Automatic annotation (TrEMBL), chain B:
UniProt entry keywords in alphabetical sequence: Membrane, Transmembrane, Transmembrane helix, Transport
Name this protein carries in UniProt: Sugar ABC transporter permease
Provenance organism: Phytohabitans houttuyneae
Intracellular or extracellular location(s): Cell membrane; Membrane
Organismal lineage: Bacteria, Bacillati, Actinomycetota, Actinomycetes, Micromonosporales
Keyword Nucleus in record: no
């Protein structure tokens, strides 16, 4: 995704050389951007360092970039917790189911919307777009999901979030850019609409389908609030809620107004760090590989949507 | 408009007898609907499930807001028992906590907009001046990273960093200060919230601007240079106007989410000690509705919030269409 700045011939033009001021700016710019990188990465490095350090060094505030009193006891502790793994598996399961549902609904609707000739298209688009600006709000949604009996099931997570309108518009823009001739040729050869979508359009759309899988999977992997709202039993929680309950202990949020004692909160400092690291790990591992697809997906939506 | 050639051969009888305009319009409309359905029923059938989704999970809750004007009892119908009129609206208008959370929402929303809207533009401009390709890509990749983290993880990291033994306090001690439990202090909440928002969103926010920057016509720079513009003036007169449509679009979208300031993050990092500055409308709605079970009252406040949000988007869109000529629709 690089932005072309490099191709600009500017610097090579005879007679136009970077001025002193501009060179000074380049130096300052490099310093600022280095600062951005440091500030962004620091929290990650610090949390990893804490997760591998000895309690006593953490409590005395000595852990910085490198672990002190290196040990992996906390990792053993967390990974030996059956509930942690159970919740981890739940997260995988919820993500797969919810992403599947979201993908089917988004693809079919985006495909319909991409057909410029169908009647009522503007109406169908408006129905979706309006929900970007107005929604029922927390309470009516809660009442609805509860009274539909979706509590304590994966559907409480998957169904209410099945279509993200932003993703829908990105996908619609992509479908619109496909050559119409192919579909027409397929229709002449006797394929019906379903056949065209499954056998012509989708194979041509691997890039966008992959982008959508990523978008949805990451958002479901990261989500915690619907599970927090609609699941009552600990064995149903995704790992995000497990983590939330672990860290909530330290602020006393929700805990009947209890104010956590500063030193009490420290006892499990490493445990928290380890859980944070383990929950982030999958994202951090795939991130370098998938990041550019996200970016191109966003840009696609920006340029065409 | 593309014509559906194969699926719909043009009717052979083109010469229709002229009809009176009104009657003709009605008949034509109805007939073409029937024709459209016959021709495209397979396409329409694909839209059924998604439409059901929108009706049930998006529009039904909008109607569900009537419980703001009705008495609701858990276990009863989802639309409540009987009408109570504006009772709950009056209740929250006279509720001092409501006005406190309202102010907090405005302050946090305003600060976030003020900080998190312009800084991605600045970062994008700075990145655009980097001539080394891989360096630029590296900085970009790193700056997007926080966007992919769960809000729970961000909250967890915040707590670790701001705890008494955390890095921030290490720095404070190194500078000779007294360690502070930042998350327990109402006066620190706004700073913490806004800077963590910035950390999480600034890199991601540059994507669209960088995309917009590539579309600027290079000849404009050429022309500006011939006119004697230096780098700064080129940025001011060519680059910024070039990305103006993107800026306006994103500003409108940002204004739209103004009222719904970081509900999930605040819910995770606030606590009774910091309610004074941290409690916003949506977290109050959560506590009143879900925690205390006063669903009708909470729905009334939530509805108020959504309506303000909608009004803000509509007016921002209207103003920008009138003044800058760019709008969302």
């Amino acid at each position: 995704m690089t932005v072309d700045a490099l191709k600009r011939p500017r610097r090579r033009k005879p007679g136009i050389r970077p001025s002193k001021g501009y060179r000074a700016f380049q130096v300052v710019n490099a310093i600022i951007l280095t600062g951005v990188v440091v500030v962004t990465l620091y929290p990650f490095i610090n949390i990893v360092a804490r997760s591998m350090s000895d309690q006593t060094y953490i409590i005395s505030g000595q852990v910085n970039l490198l672990p002190k009193g290196f040990n992996l006891e906390a990792y053993e502790h967390v990974t030996s917790d059956a509930m942690f793994w159970r919740n981890y598996r739940n997260t995988v399961f919820y993500t797969v189911v919810a992403t599947g549902v979201a993908l089917i609904l988004t693809t079919t609707y985006a495909y319909v919307l991409s057909k410029k000739h169908i009647k009522g298209r503007t109406f169908l688009v408006s129905i979706a777009v309006f929900t970007m600006f107005f929604n029922g709000g927390l309470i009516p949604n809660y009442v609805l999901v509860t009274s539909l009996g979706l509590k304590n099931s994966v559907w409480a997570i998957a169904l209410p979030n099945a279509i993200s309108v932003f993703n829908l518009l990105v996908m619609k823009a992509f479908f619109e850019s496909l050559p119409l001739d192919l579909e027409e040729a397929a229709a002449v050869d006797g394929l019906n609409t379903y056949g065209i979508l499954l056998r012509i359009v989708l194979p041509l759309s691997k890039a966008i389908v992959a982008t959508m899988v990523l978008f949805y999977a990451v958002s479901f992997w990261n989500s915690w609030f619907s599970a927090f709202l609609y699941m009552d039993r600990q064995e149903l929680f995704p790992v995000t809620v497990y983590l939330r309950n672990l860290i909530a202990g330290s602020t006393g949020a929700e805990m009947a107004g209890a104010i956590a004692e500063a030193d009490e909160a420290q006892v499990d400092a490493t445990i928290k760090s380890v859980t944070i690291v383990l929950t982030t790990l999958p994202i951090l591992t795939v991130y370098p590989f998938v990041q550019r697809y996200f970016v191109s997906g966003i840009m696609l939506g920006a340029v065409k949507g | 408009m593309s014509t559906p050639k194969i699926l719909d051969p043009p009717p052979t009888t083109m010469a229709e007898p002229p009809l009176p305009p009104v009657a003709r319009k009605v008949r034509k409309g109805r007939r073409s609907w029937r024709r459209a359905l016959r021709r495209d029923w397979q396409l329409y059938s694909l839209a059924i499930l998604p439409l059901l989704f929108f009706v049930i999970f998006r529009y039904l809750p909008m109607l569900g807001n009537v419980i703001a004007f009705r008495r609701f009892r858990p276990g009863g119908g989802i639309f409540g028992e009987y009408w109570v009129g504006l009772r709950y609206v009056k209740m929250f208008l006279g509720d001092p906590t409501f006005w406190n959370v309202f102010t907090n929402t405005l302050v946090l929303g305003g600060l976030t907009l003020l900080v998190c809207f312009p800084l991605p533009i600045v970062l994008a401009l700075l990145l655009n001046e980097v001539r080394t390709r891989y360096l630029k890509r590296f900085v970009q990749s790193v700056s997007y990273l926080p966007h992919f983290l769960s809000i729970v993880i961000v909250a967890g990291m915040l707590m670790q960093m701001l705890s008494v033994d955390g890095v921030v306090n290490q720095l404070v001690s190194a500078l000779g200060g007294e360690p502070t439990a930042f998350l327990q202090k109402p006066e620190w909440f706004r700073t913490i919230y806004v800077s963590s928002e910035l950390w999480q969103t600034v890199g991601w926010g540059t994507i669209l601007y960088l995309a917009a920057l590539t579309t600027i016509d290079q000849d404009l720079y050429e022309a500006a240079r011939i006119d004697g513009a230096n780098r700064w003036r080129q940025t001011w007169h060519v680059t910024l106007p070039g990305i103006r449509p993107t800026m306006v679009t994103l500003l409108i979208l940002n204004i739209g989410t103004f009222m719904a300031v970081g509900f999930e993050k605040i819910l995770l990092i606030y606590n009774p000690l910091t309610y004074e500055t941290a409690d916003v409308i949506s977290t109050y709605v959560y506590r009143v509705g879900i925690v205390s079970g006063n669903l009708s009252y909470a729905a009334a406040i939530g509805l108020f919030e959504s309506i303000i949000g909608l009004t803000l988007v509509l007016s921002a869109n209207f103003i920008s269409r009138r003044t800058v000529g760019t709008s969302l629709w």
